[in-house]
Structure formats: C-alpha cells, structure tokens
Amino acid sequence: MPRERRIAFISDIHANLEALTAVLDDARTQEVTDFICLGDVVGYNADPCACIALIRELGCVTVCGNHDYYCSDPAVDINDFQDTAASVIEWTRRQLSDADLRWLRSLPLTATTQGITAVHSTLDNPKHWRYVFDAYDAADNFNAQKTRVCFHGHTHVPMIFSRNGDRLIRIPPTSGLLDKGMYFINVGSVGQPRDGIPEASYAIYAARGLMDCNIIFRRVPYDVETAIAKVRRANLPDKLVDRLYSGR
Ligand code: ZN
Fold it and tell me: How much distance in Å is there from the Cα of 12 to the middle of ligand 1?
C-alpha cells in the first residue's frame, strides 16, 4: 500500500503567533508530512515578523495573500482602504525588515505541487482578491482550476465547494473522504476565524492516491488572551480584539 501523504493547509495567519504556534503543535500530533501556506501571513495582529520567521522556517510552499501584497508593495496606496485596514497596514509596514519585505514580494499568487493547487482567493483572477461564499461565486474558479483539488482561504470561513459535471454545491466543512468530482476547499483562518468559532482553523489533506483522499478539518484552542494583550500594546484598533474573542 502506498504511503499516506498528510499535508496541512494553513491560511490567514494574520500575525497571530499564539494561534500559529498552537496549529503547528497540533499538526505535529496529526503526523503531518508537509505544510502549505495559503497566504496572509501578516496583517491585523501584532506579530508579523515572528510569523514570517516561523513560516520561512517550515520552508513550505506559500502563496501571496492580499495583506502580504498590501503590506509589502509600496505602490499600494493605503488611502484607498477603510480606517481599520489602513492603520493596520501602516503599522505592519513599519515592523517588517527588508528581508521580510523581500520574502513577501517573492511569493507567487498560485502554486501547484503534488497535484494540488493553492491560491489565496480564486484561480480565475488571483489578484482581484474575490471572496467566495457561495456556489455562484465559486463557478469562475472551477473554470480556471486544472487540478482535482484546490485549496484557498481569504474569507476566514471554512467550507467546501464541489463540482461534479454541471452540479456545483457548497458543503459544510465536514471531515471525510473526497468523492468523485472537483473540489475547491477553504480551510478557514489560523489567526482570525470569522465563522463564530474563535479557535484556530486549518485542514489536513490525507492522500494515498488521487482518488483516495480524505480531508480533515481541525479547530485548535490557543492563548487568545496573550494575542489580544499584544494587539492592545501595539495600539491596534479595538475592533481586532473583538474579532479574536468572538470569532467573527
Ligand atoms: Zn485574510
């Protein structure tokens, strides 16, 4: 029997070191063999540099998220953003070293590895940063998807989209065997979940072959109080504190 590959997909870490550390610890108990990062390593919370260092240490395939892009490209004009977003991007830019900026700028928008595709938002136009919440939103992505399975993040809400022939449906994030058809899977957010559950979210793709693969959604409690204390100490907007407590 071929050896099982167990790839942990992590997304939207958003500079939350406590959540990232807890997820990496949990993944090790799950005998994960590889990691793939779906972007937004920085933005919102108070530990952008430490989170970049941890992800770089993993040496894993990482794609670029909108916050990674906004925080590292000086051509992005933050006056176009609403107040909370603009102040966080400005604060994050001040923390990042030249090496951090170079690394963020080097990230590709999409990556295909081991027969799976990774993107932060959607494959049809990755730099438009579209949000996919329903099957209608997912249709354009499927038209651009070349592999059977593609993982994404960006909405911070874990969910599964599946297309089988003309049938395109949204499925709640339940662990289990992937059936026939194509899949576009949102793994939720490590550092700022928005589905009403404050615990860090990620997913494991466990495969023995292309048609023998399971998806396992994980939720991991972490030290929210420490993450929040750091957000407060950095004088980041209060709204970010509420989001960590409520998971919204
Ligand atoms: Zn995000």
Answer: 4
Q: How far is the C-alpha of 213 from the C-alpha of 114, rounded, in Å?
A: 13
Residues with Cβ within 8 Å of 109's Cβ and at least 6 positions away in sequence, in order, are 63, 64, 119, 120, 126, 127
Q: For 87-116, how does the pLDDT look when each residue is reduced to its tens digit (9 = 90+)?
A: 999 999 999 999 999 999 999 999 999 899
191: CA distance to ligand 1 center in Å? 9
Chain segment 111-142, per-residue pLDDT in tens: 999 899 999 999 999 999 999 999 999 999 99
Task: List phi, psi (to 5°) of 118.
Answer: -125, 135
Do residues 9 and 203 make contact, with C-beta atoms less than 8 angstroms apart? Answer: yes
User: What's the whole-model pTM score?
Assistant: 0.96
Residue 179 CA to ligand 1 center (angstroms) comes to 28
Q: Which of 58, 44, 42 is nearest to 9 (CA)?
A: 58
